[in-house]
Amino acid sequence: AQLAQAFAEVQTYKKGWPEWQDHWTQNYRVGRGTYFLGIGKPVEAEFEFLRAKEAIENQKRRQESGEFSGSTRRPQQASSIAASREQILRLLGKSTIDQVKPALSEYYYREALKGTLTELSRASPRVALSLSGLSHAVAEQGRLDESVQLSKAALQSMKESGSSETSLNVIEARRAYADALSTNGNYKQAIEQYGLMKQSLAQNLELQN
Q1: Residue 122: phi, psi to the nearest 5?
Q2: Average pLDDT over residues 88-95
Q3: Within 13 A of 59's CA, how many CA atoms are on the CB side?
Q4: Which of 15, 152, 160, 163 fits 167 for a cystine, CB–CB 3.0-4.6 Å?
Q5: Three-class SS state of 9
Q6: Number of neighbours of residue 163 by Cβ within 10 angstroms
Q7: Each residue of 130-178: pLDDT tens digit?
């Protein structure tokens, strides 16, 4: 209710709304969608993320047309818009896989990955997140060998980005890889990965405090 009230208020800003409407709209829709995901309502979440995607696509068009060429504000820079767009696509991938729509989820994760690789090298947490989601989506379609390769690539990408073996990002990526191996019947390799994950968890200082 507070989020809706705040969004309604900013729409009354005669000077700021025309310039910032797409940015504010996508933030509002992402907030609502994330809330719906958290309470187990992926259908409602997907609706909000689709509205967020409409807003970020419009902001992207405006940026590419030169409308923000004189701006130094981060939300109006191409790199920031690209990162927001990828996040929304990944959220759409999550909301659709939660509805057991793996083919559509795969499409969103592939689109997010395509956008990330256009901006960055493979050694990026953003690449790893898209690969991990893509691995889940193809596994739900029975493509288990592909899922294993994608989850392995996600782990490698996370490590190459500079994240340490004991970081939560690498631990989560390793868990996903181990799960994919187990689902595919590669139990010995899965046990090895779970063992490495256990070691990293024991050495993670954040979890010890």
Answers
A1: -65, -25
A2: 97
A3: 29
A4: 163
A5: helix
A6: 18
A7: 999 999 999 999 999 999 999 999 999 999 988 889 998 999 999 999 9
